[in-house]
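In response to the reviewer comment on reproducibility (Comment 2.3), we provide here a single inverse folding case reported in full, input and output, so that an independent group could reproduce the run without further information from us. The structure tokens appear first.
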């Protein structure tokens, strides 16, 4: 999910670069005044972001995404997000129902320059549905998502963009969460499942069973681990939060023309299982750089495999994450903690003891204190302030006791009188 969104941001960056003059004035937050005691008046001020937001990094492209993931993860473990965190998420919605990743000035109306996208909108829908009580907002968002469906049945990151596996899958999750049947949402007779099947690599190909993000310029499909994990969930009609699936026979890649959605999910799972077999993790390969473990996509793979075949299918990568993901999560922030919590949830693992770490506590620390924690603090304060036996009562008791002991000792010193 974290890396998945990075791919989507890259796609957005291309669109933004091609239409630079159309960038909204409020797309980037304004810098805050220099803090007191700063070493130099000329030093650039460090921007500040809303206290209601999870994380402290620039939210321009992922504010709603990480807010939604954080609250989804909290909800799975029974933690109620702070009301102001939920309110902030709602302020990012435009009147047409779409969500922008980050609106620095939420009081300003959205216009043609406001950058809205399917990924942030779909994530927000899933979070708000899970929290409950936001039917008006989610209904408008779903209506907008339907309005920007492509003719091939899928969705791109931005309205009008070419369909990709990741965006199509996260929208499927939003539709399902909102009570829609993704198979019934179509454009020109094509559904999201049709679009995903077109992005699945045939088993006869190298990396058969995997999903591509999009076809390349020549129309060729190239395997993408991030897209494959997303494609498995999308093909199953699942969202970002899943429970362990029923055990199924070992996933094998099987061609049958374009596969059914269920077979596409099995094929994708077979590819992920093979990729994870050696080291228990997926690998990030970038030109000119050494291969590195891909923590985010590994967490996504855990969720996908568990959703299809149960916890046992994801055991090896899950154990690897328990042993190796702490540093990555700390550096990456709330979305990463949320990914790990969702992976734990998908496998029935305790996120409060994940390789010895309390993921819930760590996630909560990245944003406003959740309701339960805030309530506990208020109750403790009330007990201290309203106790009928305040501090001075105890002081008085000790004084009385002290005086009594003094009289007793004084009487002992005097002894019997003649």
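Designed residues, in position order:
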């Amino acid at each position: 999910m974290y890396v998945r969104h990075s791919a989507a941001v890259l796609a957005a960056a291309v669109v933004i670069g091609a239409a630079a003059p159309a960038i909204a004035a409020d797309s980037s937050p304004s810098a805050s005044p220099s803090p007191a005691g700063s070493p130099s008046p000329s030093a650039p001020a460090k921007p500040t972001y809303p206290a209601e937001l999870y994380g402290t990094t620039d939210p321009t492209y992922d504010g709603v995404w990480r807010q939604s993931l954080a609250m989804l993860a909290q909800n799975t473990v029974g933690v109620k997000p702070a009301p102001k965190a939920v309110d902030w998420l709602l302020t990012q919605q435009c009147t047409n129902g779409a969500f922008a990743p980050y609106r620095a000035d939420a009081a300003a109306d959205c216009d043609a320059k406001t950058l809205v996208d399917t990924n942030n909108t779909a994530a927000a829908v899933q979070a708000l549905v899970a929290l409950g009580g936001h039917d008006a907002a989610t209904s408008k968002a779903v209506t907008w998502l339907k309005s920007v469906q492509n003719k091939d049945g899928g969705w791109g990151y931005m309205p009008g963009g070419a369909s990709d596996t990741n965006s199509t899958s996260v929208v499927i999750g939003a539709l399902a969460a909102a009570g829609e049947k993704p198979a019934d949402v179509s454009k020109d007779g094509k559904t999201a499942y049709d679009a995903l099947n077109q992005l699945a690599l045939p088993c006869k190909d190298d990396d058969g069973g995997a999903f591509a993000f999009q076809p390349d310029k020549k129309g060729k499909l190239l395997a993408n681990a991030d897209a494959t994990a997303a494609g498995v969930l999308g093909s199953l009609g699942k969202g970002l939060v899943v429970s362990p699936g029923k055990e199924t026979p070992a996933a094998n890649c099987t061609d049958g023309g374009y596969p059914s959605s269920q077979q596409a999910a099995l094929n994708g799972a077979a590819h992920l299982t093979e990729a994870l077999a050696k080291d228990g993790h997926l690998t990030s390969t970038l030109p000119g750089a050494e291969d590195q473990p891909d923590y985010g996509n590994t967490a996504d793979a855990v969720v996908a495999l568990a959703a299809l075949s149960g916890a046992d299918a994801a055991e090896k990568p899950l154990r690897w994450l328990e042993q190796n993901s702490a540093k990555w999560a700390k550096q990456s922030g709330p979305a990463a903690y949320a990914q790990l919590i969702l992976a734990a949830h998908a496998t029935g693992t305790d996120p409060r003891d994940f390789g010895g770490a309390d993921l819930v506590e760590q996630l909560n620390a990245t944003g406003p204190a959740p309701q339960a924690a805030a309530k506990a603090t208020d109750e403790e304060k009330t007990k201290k302030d309203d106790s009928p036996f305040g501090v001075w009562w105890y002081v008085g008791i000790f004084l009385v006791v002290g005086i009594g002991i003094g009289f007793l000792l004084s009487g002992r010193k005097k002894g019997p009188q003649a």
